[in-house]
Amino acid sequence: MTFRYDIPRSRLKYAGIFSWQGLYKTMNEWFQEREFEFHEKLYKDKIKPVLPEIEIKWYAERKVTGFIMYVINVEFHIWDLEEVEIMKDGKKEQTNRARFLIDFSGSVVIDYAGQFEHSEFRKKIETFIRNHIIKKEVETIHVDKLDYMILNLHKRTKEYLDFYSKSHAYPMF
After folding, report:
1. Cross-strand bridge partners of residue 107
2. What distance in Å separates the CA atoms of residue 159 and residue 116, rounded to the nearest whole number?
3. For the chain, where are the E strands, in sequence order?
4. How far is residue 86's CA from residue 92's CA, in Å, rounded to a whole number?
5. What is the DSSP string of 2-13?
6. In terms of pLDDT, which residue wins out, 57 or 92?
7. Distance (Å, whole) CA 75 – CA 105
């Protein structure tokens, strides 16, 4: 039986000038560096009379062991996305202007392959393993590690947007 330990959602709000391609690339590279399998579950572009509204949902997973998997969900909601031309270091540069929200959340999934779902006896074994053998390891190591990974992705996103403080409480992740 699959069981999840959910990580609380964190949110980033932004309005201003940025490069959408650069932000997409930066966040995608973050997932690749940490060996996450990355999927874009939803891309919805609502054409409005003036400027578009875009919704995007990402799903990334990394199998840590044969029993434990990390899942990170990133949801974008972008309003008024438009291309603008700015002067940077004396040169004209194409970039974007928009307002957006990015929600980061995740979960540690136990028995992601459903190895123990085939019989009642196996379900009882899985419950015993989850509640007595690996509970402390999952709660103290895996949940914390994934939480700090999500905070690091949040920080990397803010760094790209030049929208962050210069230090981080947990620099190792």
Report:
1. 6, 71
2. 42
3. 3-18, 37-46, 53-63, 68-88, 91-110
4. 6
5. -EEEEEEEEEEE
6. 57
7. 9
**Angle at the Cα of 157 (from 155 to 159), degrees rounded to 5?**
70
Give the pLDDT score at 135.
83
**Structural domains in the chain?**
3-160 (3.40.198)
What secondary structure does DSSP assign to 27-65, as a single string?
Answer: HHHHHHHTT-EEEEEEEEEE--SSS-EEEEEEEEEEE-S
- Residue position matching structure tokens 């572009």: 45
- pLDDT, one tens digit per residue, over 7-41 is 999 999 999 899 999 999 999 999 999 999 999 99
Owner of token pair 């402390």:
136
Separation CA 105–CA 26 (nearest Å): 18
Which distant-in-sequence residues (6+ apart) come within 8 Å of 93 by Cβ? 85, 86, 87
Distance of CA 147 to the CA centre of its chain: 10
- Spatial separation of the C-alpha atoms in residues 122 and 126, rounded to whole Å: 6
Instruction: Answer whether 157's CB lies under 8 Å from 102's CB.
Output: yes
Instruction: Tell me the C-alpha distance between 35 and 44, whole Å.
Output: 26
State yes or no: pLDDT of 172 exceeds 60.
no
